Amino acid sequence: MKRSTKKNTRRTFIKQHLLSGAGTMLGIHSVSSLLDGEPSKGMDIPTLPAHSPVSGQQQPQWVKWPQWDIAADEPPVVEVLRSGVWSRAKVVEQFEAAWAKTIGAKACVTTVNGTNAMICALANLEIGGGDEVIIPPYTFIATPQAVLQTGAMPVFVDTDPETFQMDVSKIEAKITPLTRAILPVHIAGIPCDIEAIMKIAKKHKLVVVEDSCQAWLSEVNHKKVGTFGNAGCFSFQNSKNIPMGEGGAIVSDDEQLIDRCYSYHNYGIAHASMVAKHGAGMSMLGTKLRLTEYQAAIGLAQLKRLDAQTTIRANNAAYLKSRLEAIPGIIPYKLYDHVTRVSFHLFPFRYKKEAFKGLPRAAFLKALSAEGVPCSSGYTTLNTQPFLANAFQSKNFKRMYSSKMLDINKYRERNHCPQNDILCNEEAVWFTQNILLGSRADMDYIISAIEKIYKKQKILRN
Ligand SMILES: Cc1ncc(COP(=O)(O)O)c(C=O)c1O
């Protein structure tokens, strides 16, 4: 495992790893206040007594991300750079073949990022204006934005706080005559209850596009997530477990769908089976979403590490979970039955302040950061954010939907997700994937740090 040799201050480290991590740049909650070491405005956060690092243990040098092995990774990338063939060509094709094989799907097309992979998949499954798409609120901003970009209306289904995933028991109540698709997210890389979702989708004849943007190699019953729905979408953004800087992919067993997506991602120039259907040339609606050769070369280098690193993360996560759940008030994620592998882009747990004598989560995070453990409060409540009202006020939305459907107050009522509000506003805490690449001693350090805060808080409040 490569570790940083550069001497970073804790503050620089947290800044670098939290702000670039986990697809969290926009969805993150209260990180800036943690970085500044100041409580959020208007909040009265009690502070703990002056800290000393976890006694007797060396503060870990957390694993740096992304990783780059100069000797092994650079030659193929340099070869691409020197070739002058930088636009989509053979290396992108090679990556697509490798990714389809890795995920166990018949076909794959890459895109500029995961967001546009979802837009492309939805659009080519004919999701658009006037349609409703069911999504979870506990996700990155890209999920609802992808739905809105197609012209469809996102409908939020509350979160199961135990798993951090969409609560399947609440889906059917949200289905209306306008519902056309479900866009489930495997958040943190933890599979959502995709088998149950597929049953509901089949019953109601809905399309399913899996947001697998954090779930490379995650499995249910030994089948990779991203292969259950009509299409699965992945992200290779810099913080991701297989990073390229930016990049995305759509996989599917429906080869005609991938051909349509390919045509769409290349200005609508008909490709493969689409030629027979539409004729050659620029015969379809499209845009440009092509990956470059050097991104694909970086992706192929990263792919070599993905399987082994996924195992390391999963082993560390299982150990952390087993130890953290013994601490009162710390409730790590739960997995659904049949989950056979988890990519762990994040390690999420719930913090119950009652067990910490009422210490608010922001103060807990501040104390944990002060111990040198990078952590965050994760996503904000997406279903309450102003981007929705902004979309509803747009010319396109006004033309596509009735004023009743675009009434933002009524929309907020229909899309109220109380469990998710608690998770986002009070309880969720995350560690990012690079932390899970550390040693057993690093995991022990995290456990000791939380135990220390628990004991200190108990003494302080008693
Ligand atoms: C759950 C989720 N969906 C979608 C995306 C969008 O991927 P990208 O950043 O590659 O557009 C991300 C990545 O940040 C994500 O975490």
Structure described in brief:
By secondary structure, the protein is of the alpha/beta class. The chain has helices at residues 10-19, 31-36, 70-83, 90-103, 114-124, 142-150, 194-203, 255-264, 273-278, 293-324, 361-370, 387-392, 395-400, 408-414, 418-427, 440-461; strands spanning 107-111, 132-135, 153-156, 159-160, 165-166, 179-182, 207-211, 219-220, 223-224, 231-235, 248-252, 330-332, 339-341, 346-351, 428-432. Helix 4 runs parallel beside helix 10.
What do these coordinates show?
The chain is α/β, with parallel strands linked by helices. The protein folds into two domains: 10-47 and 58-67 and 305-379 and 421-461, Aspartate Aminotransferase, domain 1 (Alpha-Beta Complex); 70-298, Aspartate Aminotransferase, domain 2 (3-Layer(aba) Sandwich). Helices cover 40% and strands 12% of the residues. The chain has 16 helices and 15 strands. The chain has helices at residues 10-19, 31-36, 70-83, 90-103, 114-124, 142-150, 194-203, 255-264, 273-278, 293-324, 361-370, 387-392, 395-400, 408-414, 418-427, 440-461, and strands at 107-111, 132-135, 153-156, 159-160, 165-166, 179-182, 207-211, 219-220, 223-224, 231-235, 248-252, 330-332, 339-341, 346-351, 428-432. It has a seven-stranded mixed beta sheet with strand order 1-11-10-7-6-2-3, sandwiched between helices. β8 and β9 form a beta hairpin. The longest helix is centred in the last third of the chain and has 32 residues, at 293-324. Residues 1-51 have low confidence and may be disordered. The structure holds pyridoxal-5'-phosphate (PLP).
